[in-house]
Amino acid sequence: MQKEMAYSFPDEVLKHVFSFIQSDKDRNAVSLVCKSWYEIERWCRRKVFIGNCYAVSPRMVIRRFPEVRSIELKGKPHFADFNLVPDGWGGYVLQWIAEMAGAYPWLGEIRLKRMVVTDESLELIAKSFKNFKVLVLFSCEGFSTDGLAAIAASCKNLRELDLRESEVDDLSGHWLAQFPETCTSLVSLNISCLGSDEVSFSALERLVDRCPNLRSLQLNRAVTLDKIANILRRAPQLVDFGTGNYAAELQPDVFSNLAGAFSSCKELKSLSGFWDVVPAYLPALYSICPRLTSLNLSYATIQSPDLIKLVSHCPRLQRLLVLDYVEDSGLEELASSCKDLQELRVFPSDPFGVEPNVSLTEQGLVAVSLGCPKLQSVLYFCRRMSNAALVTIAQNCPNLTRFRLCIIEPKTPDYLTLDPLDAGFGAIVEHCKDLRRLSLSGLLTDHVFEYIGTYGKKLEMLSVAFAGDSDLGLHHVLSGCESLRKLEIRDCPFGDKALLANAAKLETMRSLWMSSCAVSFGACKLLGQKMPKLNVEVIDETEPPDSRPESYPVDKLYIYRSVAGPRFDMPPFVWSMDEAVKILH
Amino acid sequence: MEGSVGYDNDLNLRATELRLGLPGTEPVSIVRSNKRSLQQVADDDCGVNGCRSDDQNETAPPPPKAQIVGWPPIRSYRKNNIQTKKNESEGGGIYVKVSMDGAPYLRKIDLKIYSGYPELLQAIENMFKFTIGEYSEREGYKGSDYAPTYEDKDGDWMLVGDVPWEMFITSCKRLRIMKGSEARGLGCGV
């Protein structure tokens, strides 16, 4: 009887049902039900997300999922963004492309983050995948405009080319002209990271002209303000637009042309770019401001009064990125005008200055927390904070999912009481029950970690710097945070004990980064020995860790779970603590 | 394991000092240096009880504020963007394009590095390998086929030298060395 049940649905029916299941989590759950479901599911999985390119090998992915059409890979650890990961560390995509070229002829989408992508890789993509549609290179490096030219020339049905925040060797603007006249399929083009003086603007104009489905376009800084109107008139269907530099001498005809062009874009909801802003040209945006949901002014060095004027025209704003020139007064205005605000990022205009150069304090953030009940995501750089302010923010915004606070001077205490900020951050984790991401700063003792371990049950990513007193702090986090996936720590007095006591926890996480802490080489070796499913990598650019006593702290440590074993592309300054690797050497 | 990276003898010596300071009390690394100097405490309990504060530093004068690598946590392209703006506002340079009729490509110069017209014109002469001639208020540039001109804020083409230097550098958008009859037209009896 039971046997009949198992075969009651033909594979095709199950396949069809599974095709409605898109999320990776659900797909993974489906594959665990029974062997036959595992088999059916793996043949019809079309999208794979690999959060750490070293957690698995290309071969293993291909073996399990033979019909993938879309892949997303992440490479370097997050702290690479702040120059803590030395050049040459790894994250090369070439091997992946090479293996997928043979196995996935129908691969249509490649999304990469923090990976090293060479021109060779791009050329291989252009050659190998006939149906290539989407290329997203987020914070990548290692390639030039030559590689882009290969993509442009070969990919006949390219829909998306997004190079956001990548470092590109800009050899010439002519790669844009490589898009054939027959290419009319572009939906999204983001070249904002390109630095060249000369962008082949005429090629860009023609490209925009012939792509009626273009919805998202981000220009680079080299494109001058007077050119914007031309582009917008060719693409009034744009939803998301990034200007180049937004500066020119105020001329009435240029202004009215620009204002007219903007107003013809009835779908425009998101703006970015705005390098070198001349405030007099901001009113050209007023006609579209009522529809704007996202505004990135984080390069705009304009002062608070101009920012206030602009923001007050945008009642539907959900997302705002801005420099601290906005000041507390600007944030107060934001709080009263933009009731739909969900995400706020305030960047420092003078991060290395000792004295504050603007009047931006904790008050601005408190005002926003009070006025914007839908606030979910915060990134805030400031120079002073108090426990009272943090408690208020926590109580006002229980729906926060991401909270990243950077008090610029390390170990700054509560400016009112001179206490550590343990209670303030404690309130955040206690009240914000859905908090998934948290970055700490200021003066913090082991207590803050006790709060985090107790309340941070949904916390997935935690960033810690210059905090804590002892191993107890790290122990609280590793033993308490059930959902923790990524933990990155720098300059904290955390050592061997907490790490070794919670070794098993590390297998439930994607990765752990610790730099300038107090973990000894001996402990790293022990972990490498005892935990074969973890790759324990020590990074030291000065000398081999085994040339010093075992009790010496290592400089940098990166631990991640992997089913692929130790990697083969480690540079000389990275040492694997895997026993097998040691034997080979 | 032998790495192929060269090791500095100095750093080996310092490494045996065994001093681990509290994070933040010392600059633990130097911006843009590949070699991090690690100073470590000769402390048996290091790593178990945490680090003790460095007593030596309490009486010494506070060290100059050194930049800590990767702090504050901002991406480099943002830092670069802010730097550029700062340079501009501190008068980091007034770069203008210089074209010369008949020359295949343009040059760029920083007007701020010159103290006056003679220096500027000398520099342009050297750059394009020609001579300009002598300036007179009445007749412009005599003695050569060339006239240095510039486009001002209003978009008009003016003869270089007519206005005071300070006014010139703030209003000049680009330079053009005119040649031949056009040049002569500009020089004669305005």
TrEMBL record, chain A:
Protein name (database record): F-box domain-containing protein
Domain F-box intervals: 9-50
GO molecular function ontology, one term from the record: auxin binding
A biological-process GO annotation: auxin-activated signaling pathway
Keywords: Auxin signaling pathway, Developmental protein, Nucleus, Ubl conjugation pathway
Subcellular location: Nucleus
Nucleus keyword on record: yes
GO CC entries: nucleus; SCF ubiquitin ligase complex
InterPro entries: COI1_F-box, F-box-like_dom_sf, F-box_dom, Leu-rich_rpt_Cys-con_subtyp, LRR_dom_sf, LRR_FXL15/At3g58940/PEG3-like, Transp_inhibit
Pfam families per record: F-box_5 (PF18511), LRR_At5g56370 (PF24758), Transp_inhibit (PF18791)
Pathway: Protein modification; protein ubiquitination
Domain of life: Eukaryota
The organism's taxonomic lineage, starting at the top: Eukaryota, Viridiplantae, Streptophyta, Embryophyta, Tracheophyta
Keyword Nucleus carried by entry: yes
Organism: Gossypium darwinii
From TrEMBL, chain B:
Chief location bin: nucleus
Gene3D superfamilies xrefs: Phosphatidylinositol 3-kinase Catalytic Subunit, Chain A, domain 1
Organism: Gossypium barbadense (Sea Island cotton)
Subunit architecture: Homodimers and heterodimers.
Entry protein name: Auxin-responsive protein
SUPFAM superfamilies the record matches: CAD & PB1 domains
Gene coding for it: iaa-re
Residues of the PB1 domain: 93-180
Entry's family note: Belongs to the Aux/IAA family.
InterPro entries per UniProt: AUX/IAA_dom (IPR033389), AUX_IAA (IPR003311), PB1-like (IPR053793)
Annotated region (Disordered), positions in chain: 46-66
Metal-binding among keywords: no
Compartment annotation: Nucleus
GO cellular component, one term: nucleus
Record-level GO BP terms: auxin-activated signaling pathway; regulation of DNA-templated transcription
PROSITE patterns per record: PB1 (PS51745)
Top-level lineage group: Eukaryota
Function: Aux/IAA proteins are short-lived transcriptional factors that function as repressors of early auxin response genes at low auxin concentrations.
Taxonomic lineage: Eukaryota, Viridiplantae, Streptophyta, Embryophyta, Tracheophyta
Keywords: Auxin signaling pathway, Nucleus, Repressor, Transcription, Transcription regulation
